User: Fold these one by one.
Assistant:
Number 1:
Amino acid sequence: MGDTLLPAIGTEILIPACSLVAIAFALLQWLIVSRVKLSPGGLDSAGANSGSGKNGYAEYLIEEEDGLNDHSVVLKCADIQNAIAEGATSFLFTEYRYVGIFMVAFAALIFLFLGSVEGFGTSSQPCKYDPTKLCKPALATAIFSTISFMLGAVTSVVSGFLGMKIATYANARTTLEARKGVGKAFIIAFRSGAVMGFLLAANGLLVLYITINLFKLYYGDDWGGLFESITGYGLGGSSMALFGRVGGGIYTKAADVGADLVGKVERNIPEDDPRNPAVIADNVGDNVGDIAGMGSDLFGSYAESTCAALVVASISSFGINHEFTAMLYPLIVSSVGILVCLITTLFATDFFEIKDVKEIEPALKRQLIISTILMTVGVAIVSWIALPSSFTIFNFGTQKVVKNWQVALCVAVGLWAGLIIGFVTEYYTSNAYSPVQDVADSCRTGAATNVIFGLALGYKSVIIPIFAIAVGIYVSFSFAAMYGIAMAALGMLSTIATGLAIDAYGPISDNAGGIAEMAGMSHRIRERTDALDAAGNTTAAIGKGFAIGSAALVSLALFGAYVSRAGISTVDVLSPKVFIGLLVGAMLPYWFSAMTMKSVGSAALKMVEEVRRQFNTIPGLMEGTAKPDYATCVKISTDASIKEMIPPGALVMLTPLIVGILFGVETLSGVLAGSLVSGVQSMQEPWVQKDQTHTRQLLLVILLGTHSRIHLDHLLTFSSS
């Protein structure tokens, strides 16, 4: 089978070094952003110290035609930023406090289930895939799985919170930089997004690598037991992604509907008008939903795809040969992805300068193309040096011989499938192309035809992405079985730092436009921030395409890891137990969507009533002589989202337990497969990211249930007794 060209010491240096480089690069971007001061004196001195500048560095302010370049505008921007930051921080602390209770309870449940399988045994057992060796006892698996679960949850929390803090730090600075030109504002917004992207990628990789090395001190050469315990890391990240996505999404849409329905429709005032009581809650929602929520979601996929690849890899021949570098190949791919994203970011921040609003969207799309091309080359190199020339992979009861170039192709297939999904999404969501123009044209005959055309466009937009995912799955499975699918999912997420930078850019630009409107800045500034926001809306849709596509591959990879560890070789769809599982599983994403949509409706209703009340009872509010009660609207969205996220979360957590205990492993496998297919096929729906998080959560709960080298039905038998 052969050894790898990259020695173990090289791997031990490469992975943490790439993580630390990413953190250092993120700090550098933050320092550059911080040079834009939110004080009149700071701005003036910055301009005085630099006669010229490029890409976010200080330069003289360009005087506006309306003459509003005064100190009061800067102070207003600072006050609005503080209000948005306080609202977002308050929501996240409230959310994390409630979710923290769940995390502790679920961690205890994990420990009890996994430890009780063998009666909290402390004696070693023969390894399932190598009976000549002894593997660690069930109690150890329970303890280490619980620890990794908590680490995954905490890492997800930290990543989401840091992303939100960075976004709220940068929004007003982007507004102020728009006074120098659209190029300067773009660079500040993109640098801020890069801070989030690189911090999240580095934190996820570094914590996982440290956890593996610490656990290895106990597990030694028991790779199967080690990586089974590590799956808790993915489950922790997925759990936080679930609540972050649902809670943040409910908050965002409740505030958005309340602000737009009453403000723009009923009162005919502009968007982000300071007279609107829900305007601060609306801007807070952009951060808690599209920044913290999206960050947690992509981190969950990132951790899950890595864990799935590690679990399948632990059954392979290079696991028996104890080749450290080959076993950590998924982490090496992520490390190279960080370096590729770093180089790619420089193209946007230092190598090219935005001089016109028409150059913004191409610059963001150029990031995706450059990162994909460079990553393809990087994957080919690391596959050559970090994998044996050939090795065997578990393939449903048989061993499949795989070449290192085949694994490289699996990663590349996922990488390019993600790019295709991103550009197809952009085609169907950008106003530069005919699909959106046709929907806009349908408005001439009323709202009904607009809704019909919009739904038709949404359903049609699924076709090409589904084919891209299907081809990716077929090619990856043909080359390297379930390990190939896991690596394809990881390939799609290998450029996560760039993807998150682009995703975070959108909400930051949106907030910048809102701050410009609320601070009373000129129409010229508002046009610049609107141009930034328009490009951000399109690229945010591209990011959602990545999230959906990667979630589909990750779900299948987790399903493969589950059947691999549970020893299931076939799932007979003609079996009544499996078929009813497929039907129920296909229904679950729609049930989940119904619950979240109703939650949004309930929260939005409360918000609309409060906004109407303030307009009707506060004298002088419409005239602008009185100030609205922003805090009450923020509190309504916070309380409603926290309360309404509990039922969807309970559905996700209880479904696998109830189905498994009452109907057994066959029905449960059908539920998982049905949920996966239904979630992917409904990807045209705006709430699909929550569906995909729900599907991945189901799979991870079950994957943890296959620990201690037992079949799932043993665990279910114990649970029912």
Note: The first helix runs from residue 8 to 34.
Number 2:
Amino acid sequence: MPNASADCRWEIIPVELPLRQPLRTAKGDIHHRQLWLLRLQRGEIQGWGEASPLPGFGGEAPKLCLAALGKIPGQARSAYDYASAIASTCPAAASAIRGALADASARAAGLPLARHLAAACALRPCTRLRLSLLLEQPDPEAALSAFAAGWRVFKWKSSGDIVADAAAARALRATLGPDAGLRLDANGRWSVDDCRRFAELSAEVQLDWVEQPLAPGKEADLAELTSCKLRVALDESLHGLDAVSSAAQQYWAEVFIWKYQWLGGFPALRAGLRLAQGHHPRRVVLSSTLDSWVGRSHALHAAAALGLDAEAHGLATGHLLAKDLGPDHALNGHWQLGDGPGLGGDPQL
């Protein structure tokens, strides 16, 4: 909890980050990311947060997000309470506020953000996380080069062509062998028949899972897929804590994938974990929103603080940006917690 007597100065910094090349998804191509950095100044201490909703994919509408950021109170406790009040309607804005406050508090304490968050929860953080690599295209040779460099888990986006997607899965498995994890993201654009067809065509591949095959709102239909042995991960369906609570009651929902800031930041992640594990253990993965170094840093520190080291997280997407705001987090498929206070540095604007 922030110091109630501290005064805050907030600055909203708009940033546009072009991608090196368009990222093809079943919902259309993504060419650039428009986001807002949030800089907090508390005396001599800075803190950084990020809000990067992505229309059509997740988070609040950008105009709503920016309006929420423009109303942050100038006193720390009030700002914290304000973030809690808007978290259900403006999760990205709430995450940015909470993140900037936490980053500043960690820097004031001289601790890495993960250790600061863990200490506040009486937890022991992990110091190393595995990461998955998002492939721009399901190119077996490119994946093999990454595998040789130490990457072990790979994800790619559905083309919308089920036959082509299954062929890509078979080619990746044949090239990488049995030790590579493979994940395919459909972005909610498949039908139940598509799922069954893909399961038939890729039966020997043994994917980790298909991420969000059906559109949000069609979760009941996913129960049918247990008969065709297609493991499903939920992503866009988990758009808030109420949705997490509902999904947690379904036996077939084995894998939960969260966009950290679209959930609302660290308090929302903790609450979501309690809900997700309330009935039986779930596999939990944090995934990038194609955010900048600031946003990915917050997600990584949050995962480390809560000891989420069982799965490879989808937070290695800096290579997709033509220009990022900090050094790449990924070192041959891993992220290592450093010793620097807060996020470990400032964004390179």
Note: The two ends are 29 Å apart (CA to CA).
